[in-house]
Write a structure and sequence with these properties.
This protein has about 280 residues and is α/β, with parallel strands linked by helices. The protein has two domains: about 15-70 and about 175-280, Vaccinia Virus protein VP39 (Rossmann fold), CATH 3.40.50; about 75-160, Adenine-specific Methyltransferase, domain 2. Helices cover about 30% and strands about 15% of the residues. It has a seven-stranded mixed beta sheet with strand order 3-2-1-4-5-7-6, with helices on both faces. β4 (about 185-190), α9 and β5 (about 230-240) form a beta-alpha-beta unit. α3 packs across α7. The longest helix is centred in the last third of the chain and has 16 residues, at about 215-230. Mean pLDDT is about 90; it is low at about 1-5. The structure holds S-adenosylmethionine. S-adenosylmethionine binds near residues 51 and 67.
């Protein structure tokens, strides 16, 4: 969608408010030619929400956003339902190492919902590389980062995101449950943790629940099921052999997309990399 054709009900400055491994903000211009026209989307479903870059770009009139990470979904709920409470809870946070570890050690159950969301946004802005990672106990365990002046409380951005999220359905769910009722007219965008190109290249441990080959096969089965139900599906993944194998059939279109990794602590891993965009419709 170009700047001249912005529909009147779009929030023009709504953008992701979290840093997220695999975040798609930079790829939106590459994806744009393949997206269905906004007015043809009955309902948009994004089951691996992360920073929700494509949702904020599309701002479809009806949407369901979900992720298996409940902590993340709760942040979106607070941005949608109590953005002023969130901003008030976020303002006092500061970019200081000792303070960071003090906040990281807090028991989230002892905080209010707005305070919990503020804690996650604060750690997201000040932790190492903006990563989200949990230990086996489900506790956030990323070390303090090296940002000089991180924008911890970007009020304007949070308010814009809140406006864009009004009326949006949010769910903590496995991707298959998130699309169980999807049908004709729905547009589903899947952005799973990628199949690693080699054993060490990829970051997939967003939470204590990993995403392995079995899950990728389950996802391919889900895409096929949605296709038979007349649902339009778009999926991002790496160009690993397993991805080609899983989507080589059923008439899917596979488009190579040149990308750059955006969360990678190793300087030698920052070169261009070809990813895949898979569609079950004519893009
Ligand atoms: C690549 S990120 C999504 C990035 C997002 N599109 C963006 O622009 O930031 C993958 C997401 O999948 C979630 N996830 C992992 N396994 C899942 C599952 N089985 N069901 C639903 N979500 C899952 C992770 O919590 C993570 O937020």
């Amino acid at each position: 969608m170009d700047a001249m054709s912005v529909a009147p009900d779009l929030v023009p400055d709504a953008r992701p408010f979290l840093k997220w491994a695999g975040g798609k903000s930079r790829l939106i211009p590459r994806y744009a030619p393949f997206l269905p026209p906004r007015e043809t989307i009955h309902r948009y479903i994004e089951p691996f929400i992360g920073s929700a870059a494509l949702f904020f770009h599309l701002q479809p009139p009806r949407a369901r956003l979900s992720d298996c990470n409940h902590t993340l979904i709760e942040v979106y709920e607070v941005v949608r339902d109590d953005v002023e409470g969130l901003i008030a809870a976020l303002r006092p946070h500061k970019n200081d190492r000792d303070y960071y570890y003090h906040v990281r050690a807090q028991d989230p159950r002892e905080l209010s919902k707005a305070e919990r969301a503020a804690r996650i946004i604060f750690m997201n802005k000040t932790c190492y590389n903006g990563l989200y990672r949990e230990n086996q106990m489900g506790e956030f365990n990323v070390p303090f980062g090296r940002y000089k002046r991180p924008r911890i409380c970007d009020e304007q951005r949070l308010r814009a995101a809140s406006r864009a999220l009004q009326g949006v359905e949010l769910r903590t769910a496995d991707f298959a449950d998130a699309v169980a009722d999807a049908g004709e007219g729905d547009f589903v965008y899947f952005d799973p943790p990628y199949v690693p190109l080699n054993a060490t290249s990829s970051f997939t441990s967003y939470s204590r629940f990993g995403f392995d080959d079995f899950d990728h096969r389950r996802l391919a089965d889900t895409v096929f099921e949605l296709t038979t139900r007349g649902c339009r599906v778009m999926l991002s993944n790496s160009s690993a052999p397993l991805v080609h194998e899983l989507y080589a059939h059923n008439g899917y279109a596979i488009h190579p997309i040149e990308a750059r990794r955006n969360i990678n602590s190793r300087a030698d891993g920052r070169g261009p990399v070809t990813e895949l965009l898979i569609l079950n419709y004519d893009g």
